Structures are given as C-alpha cells and as structure tokens.
Amino acid sequence: MKKLVNDPKNVVDEAVAGFAAAHGDIVRVSSDPTFIVRADAPVTGKVGLVSGGGSGHEPMHGGFVGVGMLDAAVPGAVFTSPTPDPILAATQAVNGGAGVLHIVKNYTGDVLNFETAADLALADGIEVRTVIVNDDVAVKDSLYTAGRRGVAGTVLVEKIAGAAAERGDDLAAVAAVAEKVIGQVRTMGVALTPCVVPHAGEPSFTLAEDEIEIGIGIHGEPGRERIKLEPADAIVDRLLGPILEDIPFVSGDSVLLLVNGMGGTPQIELYIVFRRAAEVLAAKGITVTRTLVGNFTTSLEMQGMSITVLKLDDELTALWDAPVQTAALRWGR
Amino acid sequence: MNLSVTWAEAWIRQCVDVIADHRVELITLDRDIGDGDHGENMDRGFQAVLGKLDTLPAESVPGDVLKLVATTLISTVGGAAGPLYGTAFLKAAVAVAGKPDLDGAAVVALLTAARDGIVLRGKAESGDKTMVDAWTPAVDAAAAAERAGATPVAILVEAADAAEAGAVATEPLVARKGRASYLGERAIGHRDPGAQSSALLLRAAAETAERVADE
C-alpha cells in the first residue's frame, strides 16, 4: 500500500500543520494539545460549537471550522477519538461566555471522551450541552448494539447549528436546532474497498474483488450485509430504501440530498449516484430543494459513498443558506 | 505477605512491557471486529505511563501509582479504552487510597472497584463481549479466593486465570457494545481485544506479585 506519508506516527500532526498553513485566514491551530479553532475565537457572546473525533475523515471536522459553522475541531489519532484534554482545551478556547455545544458522533470512544471533557469543563464553570448525532439507519436498534452511528449527517448538523449560533441563538436554542436536524436526517453508506490506517499498514477489513459492504459506518465497519457488486442504481436503491422508510420521508416533503464520497470514489461516480437518488425521490413526490455532492465525511482512501437525506422546513433551509466560511464549505460571504 | 508500592510499581512497569509485546496481537484482534487501533492506543498510553513513573514521590503508596496510571491513560489513550481503563484505575486508586500495603481484602476491593468503574463508564453487562467479560470473572474468582483465606498473591493468580478464561470465552459471543456490535453474528469466533488486554494486565499483576513475594 503506497501512501504520501513520512513517519506514520506524525500523520495527524503534519496534516494539521499543513491545514493551518493553508487556511490561516480561517483558522488557528494549537499543537499541544492539538485542536483547530476559528481565527477570531472566542467570539464574545456567541455559543461555541466544538466537534471532533478520530482523524481520517477529512474534511470532517477541521474543514468545517470557521464563520457560520464550528468554532473548534479536535482531531484524534487516525480513527481514534481524541482524549478529554484537547477537547477541554478547545472548549475553553471557544467559550465566549454563552456556553459551548459539543457535537458528538455516536461512537463509543467519542461519546466517552467528550463526556469526560464536558464534566471537566463544567467543573471549570463552562456551561456545556452535548448532542449526539446518530443518523445512520443501517444499524437497526440500540438494544443489541452501541446504537446508530453518527456519520455524514453530522456535516448538516454542524452547518445548521453553526448558523443558529452565528445569528445569536442561546445555548438551549442552538442545541434544540441541532436536535431538530438530528431528528430529521438519515444516512446509509456502502464500501467498495477497505481502507488502510497509516500506522497499521494493512487494510482494516477485507472485501473480495466482487464484494461490497452495505450499511458501513465511517471506518468501513459493517452494518447490514455483504453482497456481490451491483450496478450503481441498484446500490442506490438499497441505501435509499431504508433511509426513506425510517422517518419516514413522504410525498410533499422538501429535502436536502447529500451524496458523500468516502475518499476513494471519483466525483463522476458520485454524480451517477446523485442522478439515481434524485430520480427515486422525485418518483416518490419528494422535492430536493438543497443539494451537496462531494467528499465531506471520508474513510481515508476507501472507495464508497453514503446518501444522506434531511427533511427541510423554512427555518432549516434559511439556516442552511446562511453564510459560511470554512475550508470545505464556503458560500454567502 | 501484603502487597506494597514495590508491587504496584512493578506491576505497572510489567504492563508497559506486556502491552508493547502484545501490541500487534491486540491490533490484529481489534482489526477483526473493531477498528484496529487498540494495540496502538494502549501502547501509546503505557509508554506515557512509563515516562511518568519516575516522577512518583518516594513516599508513594499503591493508590498513588494507580492514580498516576489513571490520569495518564485518560490523557493519552483515546478511543473507548482510554476512558474505560482510566476510570478503572481511578476507581481502584480510590478503593485503596492511603493504604501503604494491601491485604487480601484490599486486593479484592481494588479489582472490584476497577470493574465497577468500567461498568459505570461503558454500561456494558456480562456477555456483551467486552472487557467486562474478563473483569467480572476475575473479581468473582478473587473474592472467592479471599473468602477461602488465600494470600494476596494467590488471589491475583486466581483473578488472572479467570480473566484469561473470560477473554477466551468472549470468542463465541455476539457483541452488544462497542464497534464490534455492528458485526452481529460475524463477531462470533473472534476474541474481544479489550477482554484480551484486560487479561494481560491482570496476568502482569499476578506475575509481579509472585516475583515480589519471592524477593
């Protein structure tokens, strides 16, 4: 496996240093402990938004730090949650006196480390609220598993909650908007190939040449079933079916449709996927009013994609359209 | 013979070596049913512990060693294992706080508090295919040995044996917590990496206790 790395142990530090060098107009970076904050943090009187998790999902989360989205991102080692120390330091760095919202993907390590950091921040007198994103429909219930995972829908939570914070909503209101998005967003993904964690040097799982994994999380970990490769349209139908049944999405709904690449799938294939997903939604009388196509929540070099559908109303649409200036999403300013 | 700070420090130093020696094994187990980072994360954490052991004051007691391990693991391991092991060592430290040496009852209290901390943080139950499946048999075996009048060393040996058996016994289980829970039936046949690392740490506790008792 060929990779553009130096010492595998330095992958995250070197990437974060490069990110800081490239986007100094948007962010500042702390190196010990490692976290990324927007250039003007802390913003007095504004609720601070902190997210984070294992690295390897770029541009998530560092690419979403900036005006109108996250105030801080805390990258852990590749596919490993950050520890409480940098989460606490980031929380302190973005506290503008209006409290801090932690946006956490529902993975055991992320939840436990953010929980510990939130306890420490509370002890410091910082008001912290936490929302847990669990948009992945591939996992059926939490009775027999750690629950539904937080995947690409997290991008939409961060954008919309970020806009709510930017317009001056208080902590309870920003948390409520985030919970509203979490309640209305659903995702399912597929992997065509595994990915290789740099320090491991070997694929984290194996798939035969003609096999795909349906219902993956953002590390390629399975959710539903392993099947033979099918044409793109059939795969899209397999993902979209469980998504649409889940809330459910019904005729007359307006939605945001996100087709997210896992890192190794070219844009041309993502648009083939988008075309089919839009066709299926139109046939069901569901109107796609906002769209996003590209690599936003990745699994290193994995080939694959996920489809995310968010039910929109006027409030969420306005917050989605609000200005944002981050490394990965930028419009309106 | 009761166990002193000499044992506690020897135990932790042996944990550093054992985790380094088994780094690849833990990575491989975790790659099978998780995300392949357990060995790397544990090794990073215990290497950090090694660097801090020399900073312990001369008058330290076993609880001080455990507390140092707890705060270091919480700060350096990440993933789920960091908070879980960190909480385990923290609760164990509290259970034996201030005691210059540990009798059988204290050893059982240490192990019980560690297990309870893991359950508190991770909310896993026996049979969920987690580190609890190594710790609970270990605690049960230790308590039974203590009731039968065993020495602290013998209690730790019983605990280590039970933890190893418990780790092996996770192989036929379907996971209900953690990353492996998403595999469903496909987790069957694989040993839980957290249960395995727990068994390694408890074996190190027993071996160092035997060694210290011989000296």
UniProtKB/TrEMBL annotation, chain A:
Keywords: Glycerol metabolism, Kinase, Transferase. It is an enzyme of class 2 (transferase). GO terms for biological process: glycerol catabolic process. It comes from the Bacteria. Transmembrane segments: none annotated. PANTHER family: TRIOKINASE/FMN CYCLASE (PTHR28629), TRIOKINASE_FMN CYCLASE (PTHR28629:SF4). This is phosphoenolpyruvate--glycerone phosphotransferase.
TrEMBL record, chain B:
SUPFAM superfamilies: DhaL-like. It comes from Cryobacterium zhongshanensis. InterPro entries: DhaK_L_YcgS, DhaL_dom, DhaL_dom_sf, Dihydroxyacetone_Kinase. GO terms for molecular function: glycerone kinase activity. This is Dihydroxyacetone kinase subunit L. It comes from the Bacteria. Residues 6-207 form the DhaL domain. One of its GO terms (biological process) is glycerol catabolic process.
